[in-house]
Amino acid sequence: MDNAMVALTAETRSMRLEIAGFQSQISGLDQQEMTVEAQAASWTNRDQEFLQLCSRLTDLEDRGRRNNIRLLGIPEGTEGADIPSYLRDMLPKLTNTTFDPPLEFQRAHRLGPKKQDGKGRPCPIIACMLRHVQARQLLQTARTQGPLRLGTLEILLSADFSRETAERRRAFLSLRPRLRHLDVKFGLFEPARMWITKNGESRTFYDPEDLRMFLEGLHDTSQTMETMAQPSQDAQCQALGAGQPETVLDPDRRTATDSQTRGRDLERLTKTMTTGVKYYRQWRCIHCCPIDINPDPL
Predict the structure, then answer these.
(1) At what angle do helices 2-64 and 163-173 cross, to 10 degrees?
(2) Which of 78, 107, 106 is nearest to 90 (CA)?
(3) Is this structure's pTM higher than 0.85?
(4) DSSP string, 263-289
(5) What is the rounded average pLDDT of the residues 16-20?
(6) Of 59, 126, 152, 192, which has the fewest beta carbons less than 10 angstroms from its beta carbon?
(7) Residue 296: CB partners within 8 Å, gap ≥ 6?
(8) What does the angle CA 226 – CA 297 – CA 173 come to, to the nearest 5 degrees?
(9) Does residue 157 have a pLDDT over 70?
(10) Per-residue confidence (pLDDT) for residue 44, from 0 to 100
């Protein structure tokens, strides 16, 4: 009996030691968890700071490019060795505008490697103007006059943006077909923000993904409204004066001698089917072939 008690006591003591070790390990894990959570919160704050710095850097780059203009469509080699002098003489003729004082450029050059054979699309010319007012005037003239032509050449004149801003603008422009389909008025403003108006309410989006999610919500709402507004078959027949749909009688209940009754039933059934097909064609023409009356404001 004493030996058993001694063994039990020893086993209990060892279990207490093991439990104490487990508690110590748990305390250590709790401490490590707190440390990891603090580090995760620190990294989250750093990520937000990094995104803010990237946004500020993009804004600074766009502001540094405000005096720049891009020209696309000028064949390579026509500008000669002095591109600023070529642009000083060519841009007033291209825009049919007189500039006072004359246009002045800080620098101008082509982007990309020079094409030796002259084949393919010419590289664009980027020019940094001395006066911001003249750069805005050129861009406004290009918007109002439409395609600019110099002889047989069609030249595109646009503003210069950073890579991030240019990607956002392309993402916004890719949503134009959906905006027209949903009858939403829209406009893209510099540097990259989309303004829309729907049912008299205006909103401004700075992120193309936010605009895409907003349009998906509008699409789901319009589908629900069309489903609720679609009339039933009985209402269609009543609206066309055909009454309730006719019930086809069982042929086994008809007698072979009742040819007049069978003829009347066949005539009514043919009239109902003809009226239903006519209504279906009208409904399909109205609901499946909408007319796009929203012009492109861009």
Answers:
(1) 90
(2) 78
(3) no
(4) HHHHHHHHHHHHHHHHHHHHHHHHHSS
(5) 82
(6) 152
(7) 176, 180
(8) 75
(9) yes
(10) 78
